[in-house]
Amino acid sequence: MATTSQKKTSAQKVYDTFIVGAGISGLAAAIKLKKEGYHDFKIIEKASRVGGTWRENTYPGCGCDVPSSLYSYSFALSSKWSHLFARQPEILSYLESVSEEFNIASLIEFDNALENASWDESRHLWVLDTQKGQYLAKTVIFATGPITESQIPKLPGLDTFKGEMFHSAKWNHDFDLTGKRVAVIGTGASAIQFIPQIQPKVKELFVFQRTAPWVLPKPDMPLNETSKQVIDKLPIIQRGWRKAVAGSLTAINVGLRNPGLLKPVGAAAKQLLKVQVKDKALRKAVTPDFTLGCKRILFANNYYPALQADNTKLIPHGLVQVEGNTVIAANGERHEVDVIIWGTGFDVSHPPIGKKIINAAGQRVSDLWKDSSPEAYLGATLENVPNAFLVLGPNVLVYDSFITLAESQLNYIIDGLKKMKSKGFSRFEIKSDVIKAHNEKVQKHLQTTVFNSGGCKSYYLDQNGRNFAAWPWSLATLKKRLLSFDLADYDVAYEAQRSRSAA
Ligand SMILES: Cc1cc2nc3c(=O)[nH]c(=O)nc-3n(C[C@H](O)[C@H](O)[C@H](O)COP(=O)(O)OP(=O)(O)OC[C@H]3O[C@@H](n4cnc5c(N)ncnc54)[C@H](O)[C@@H]3O)c2cc1C
Question: According to the UniProt entry, where is the signal peptide (predicted)?
Fold first, then answer.
């Protein structure tokens, strides 16, 4: 195996920008850079296709829970969606077609993972060691994804399980579930999408629910050829539809920041539960005990019916132990199963990119995030990590499309790169007092939001109960803050200063 030094390329070209990852964010970064006339960038992707989340998650029923009019790029609206809420295969092919249409696919070096990114203070450069060689770049955009690390709890006896076992994000399509006894662990966003798909096939389905989620009806419907043609011919309809969806999500966001306002929605959801779930004991078991919005609100029309099927049993407790093929719930209930499917979500509070970055102080960033989750400025820049940006970093999550959030952040990032070029500085780093004051304010304002006060344990909170994910204000405020890369927030240095200090 080649060592890092053996892999060094002789030319040692210095790129203006290096993009890591070709999911939604990395693709948008490349497209926006090109649009602004930047061509001196490289983009690498560890997999052999674009798509990130939508390439990895292929479980039955996988799809977006934000209407596709909004879950699509502002610069590449599509009239081809099969439903109001698109399914995973079509989102993946949409991303592939966008990457072709904007001539990005040919720029991506696939099957090449970033292994190490170290800041070289003497040259004001990033040294990027990848599987395929070493690169140098003045700036880096880490577009490596917010929700990537599937988590499986370490339970006693798990190693004694002799059946088939996989996580929803690594679905084993070669394994036929027909006629099998299946335990699904978890009732989060992925589980409520795949449970209705597998229930008709399996012999017995045991659904382990630690916390009952809020599930609202999904206002979904198929789009026939005529609707697609109308949308295609009249882009104004598409824009209007997008605006209407954005407007309703803005209303939800107001409620998330003012939980009192969500009470009527919670009451309506409970009423719906009454209509959809006839059995009183089951209804009680699936009624959430926290304020709506504290965890991500889920939308499904087929979840409660699947729970009421004859072959399904809801176990309103977590799985705590496995003994051979017996799965044991927290209340002691035991069931024999052939398959365990983990719908246990993702570890989002320790972004894996931290393991790859060595900051200006020579520290591995993941070491700094070990006992707490990351802090960034506007989710984009990190203390002690000069000339680098994260996309979809901490505390920018607003209840909206992640694509909108990524695009807004990229406007900020590209404004920073433009200022770097026009003003001629070779190094920028977020000021310590600015990032500190920003995060203190973020944390203070999060206290009254439903995420912090709604009485639930969600993936927004890290192991210390700190909310590292949500943005406490409106999307409009976030967008406004991301309009301009304000140089007053950054320490900047010029080439001449670098040369003097290096001498
Ligand atoms: C099941 C699921 C459903 C979701 N549904 C929605 C939804 O309905 N609405 C919504 O708004 N959001 C949803 N999300 C969030 C979703 O992650 C974002 O919407 C979006 O896809 C993030 O795109 P990204 O490009 O930032 O990250 P990703 O899609 O994760 O892409 C990151 C890319 O970086 C690559 N990469 C990572 N590390 C390296 C490395 N070291 N070297 C090279 N390449 C690397 C990865 O291979 C990947 O291709 C969902 C997430 C999941 C998991």
Answer: none
Nearest CA to ligand 1 atom 16: 53
Tell me the C-alpha distance between 166 and 159, whole Å: 13
Candidates 172, 218, 162, 161; CA nearest to 198 is 172
Give the ligand 1 atom nearest the CA of 130: 42
Among 402, 403, 408, 471, residue to substitute to test ligand 1 (most atoms within 8 Å of Cβ): 402
Strands 298-299 and 215-216: parallel
pLDDT tens-digit readout, 162-193: 999 999 999 999 999 999 999 999 999 999 99
Q: How far is the CA of 228 from the centre of ligand 1 (A)?
A: 27
The answer to whether the beta carbons of residues 264 and 254 sit under 8 Å apart is no
CATH superfamily name and code, 11-149+347-502:
FAD/NAD(P)-binding domain (3.50.50.60)
> In residues, how long is the chain?
503
Task: Evaluate whether 471 touches 413 at the Cβ level (below 8 Å).
Answer: no
What backbone phi and psi angles, to 5 degrees, belong to 493? Answer: -135, 155
Q: pLDDT at residue 9 above 80? A: no
Of all residues in the chain, the percent with pLDDT exceeding 70 is 96
Q: Is the CB of 23 under 6 A from ligand 1?
A: yes
Q: What does the pLDDT read at residue 3?
A: 39
CATH fourth-level superfamily of 158-217+248-342: FAD/NAD(P)-binding domain (3.50.50.60)
Whether 469 shows a pLDDT value over 50: the answer reads yes
- 45 close to 110: Cβ distance less than 8 angstroms: yes
Tens-place pLDDT, residues 374-403:
999 999 999 999 999 999 999 999 999 999
Q: How confident is the model at residue 4 (pLDDT cuts 50, 70, 90)?
A: very low
Check pocket membership of 46 for ligand 1, CB cut-off 6 A.
yes
